[in-house]
Amino acid sequence: MTAPTGLRERKKAATKAALSAATFRLAIAKNGIGNVTADEIAADAGVSTRTFHNYFPSKEAALLYDFNETTSALLDDLRDRVKSQPVWDAIRDAAIAMHFDEKFDIEMMRCREQLIHESPSLIKEQSGQFMALFKEAIGIVADATGTSVDDLYPRLVLGSALVCIKTTTEHWLADPEGRSLPEAIAEGFAVLERGITRPPVQGN
Amino acid sequence: MTAPTGLRERKKAATKAALSAATFRLAIAKNGIGNVTADEIAADAGVSTRTFHNYFPSKEAALLYDFNETTSALLDDLRDRVKSQPVWDAIRDAAIAMHFDEKFDIEMMRCREQLIHESPSLIKEQSGQFMALFKEAIGIVADATGTSVDDLYPRLVLGSALVCIKTTTEHWLADPEGRSLPEAIAEGFAVLERGITRPPVQGN
DNA sequence: CTGAAAACTGCATGCTCTGCAAAATTTCAC
DNA sequence: GTGAAATTTTGCAGAGCATGCAGTTTTCAG
């Protein structure tokens, strides 16, 4: 907040945000990011096409900028938590804390979710970012627990946890049912803690 | 084998396989798929560049052709199994059965794994195919159990199972330790069945 | 053998993304 | 303020990807 961010850096951040916002707006307006070109985005944000590509390698990356920021913050938080918590708890609490202050615009998240869902290129981009998240998180966990990044167990734990966050969030987004996102995430984690072999209800 | 496949279809299949193989060979030879062009692949397989793009939308898809075939077969198997097994068991057994006949060239899998690991574009492509697999599997499960594709529980189960397959396979590939891949997969599933909160060894 | 269906090919096109070097802008020291 | 240095923006050129289209060649069935 009160950080001594120079004017230069603030302008850069503003430009980046503007480009991301322009991408989002155009993608919605034109019914899919496939119908939007880098030229249009740049024009909409008032910079040259070349500058757009200085900030983002692709329009998909521009659209998912916020998502990327969120996961980065989650990683920072996780780095702290693993010092004092078991991995599983650390991830769960980090994810919950991330969404506790309701600074997120649900309707916007829904729009983004739909855009992603309907575009193969966006699914790929997001999945790719997820894998990067996974890879970095594995490093953090290995560091904190003194295990190797190649060990099976931490990878299983992390993978399940990330799937849980993503799945639960999507499910909640489709139908909030009155509860909050943190509550939904907590429930998802609880399901996995219980062991997933047996369904909770049906006897199939 | 003795299927009444017309000559035409066999030639098509051969061309597709040749293109995929050429992609793999060139990617290894040139140290990354980023250093290979569609032109080179087509030339290596003896067809025009345009024809290459008739078979595959991208070189990444060409390289992952086998992977795609394998997951398709897994889905077919899963479709049968969910009729008589709980979802979790069905996925586990399908994955295990898939790899039981050791028709897979481990060294080749390792090479492919490394190629993927080092290329963002391949990570994205594979992740995208994984999401497609997930989406289709969800449909199968929902059909078989009479649940909705939007329900949380089957999504969590499926997600965890797929992560388990992928993670375990990668881990095993890095270090087989004498046991077979089916054994490794079974172990991964067993870990998750136990519930993942508590590590098996360390008391962290 | 022949006509119909399917596959292969070249060409043109539009878009993506990167490198490079010149021009414009911001920062900083004085 | 002013000028030099650092940084950012920009245009241009170029390689490559991916798709539509139309003509040619190959394959298949009867």
From TrEMBL, chains A, B:
Keywords noted in UniProt: DNA-binding, Transcription, Transcription regulation
Annotated GO MF terms: DNA-binding transcription factor activity; transcription cis-regulatory region binding
DNA-binding region: 37-56
Residue ranges occupied by any HTH tetR-type domain in the UniProt entry: 13-74
Protein name as catalogued: TetR family transcriptional regulator
